[in-house]
Design brief:
The chain is about 25% helix and about 15% strand. The protein is globular. Helix 3 packs across helix 5. The two termini are about 15 Å apart. The chain is of the alpha/beta class and about 300 residues long. The strands form two sheets. An eight-stranded mixed β-sheet has the order 1-4-7-5-8-9-10-11, with helices on both faces. A three-stranded antiparallel β-sheet has the order 2-3-6.
Length: about 300
Amino acid sequence: MLSTSRRIALRLVLAGIGLSLMPLSGASAAEPATLRLWPGQAPGEAAPLAKAEGDIPDAPGTKSDIRRLTNVSEPVLAVFPAPKEKATGASIIIAPGGAYQFLSWTHEGTELAERFNRDGVTAFVLKYRVPKRETDPDFKLPLMDAQRAVSLVRSRAAEWNIDPQRIGFLGISAGGHLAVNAISRSLESPPQRAYPAADAVDLVSFRPNFCVLLYPGSLLDKTDPTRLAPEVKVTKDTPPTFLAVAGNDAHCAECSARYYLELKRAGVPAELHVYASGGHGFGMRPRAGVAATWPDRCVDWMRSTGLLKAQ
């Protein structure tokens, strides 16, 4: 936790670089407030995207209730404060899935944020950079955004009345891969940021205090799928983790199970829920059946581990 003097200095620096501590932009009853991640252009952007940020339209003759965003070059956090009468001080940053090509913004983002609000958790939905750039084979740009998001939320914890030691990261599908990638980097000695420090925010730790993974993808070794990928690191310092997946998810069930086993071997507190059916990409939609109740089990886990203690 930052000392009082460092916190004051950080506030002054933030004000000087344009990350104002005043109320956020874009707040309304229908639209959450948003906060830019970076003081200027996000690092690593070699050239402007050919198309502007926007929604992927539904296929002709179809209508989906899922909003999918793409062509993101200006990463932001959408802020969903917990109701004051329910606030616990816990918070969670949500990284939606979308195969690093788009962001499943509603059913794997904003709807989850509103669900966690009901139990007193302040939520942030991370709009990280997609689609994957040809010049970024290792997903370094989204990694930068994830690391920066944790540091930014922690640096402004007092403003949102959240505990800087109870900040979680919820990664879904590709967002789960992103979460594990960021945590793996945080376990190196010293922790490895994917970019040079931009300002005082980057003096603050980017390791979350807990992690939630919903059908995380691409965690297995490509040559030996009975093992985790070599870049996936698990140690005793890995944050406590909750995992949920459907057993009939062809790509992600084994990722979840093997990651859980590594957590167990390392002595990391973890909980794994494998639902018989639900497939992939269900978020919390009722059509997934009992698998859609995973947020209730996650909240139970958070409560049992003391993450939802009253302030």
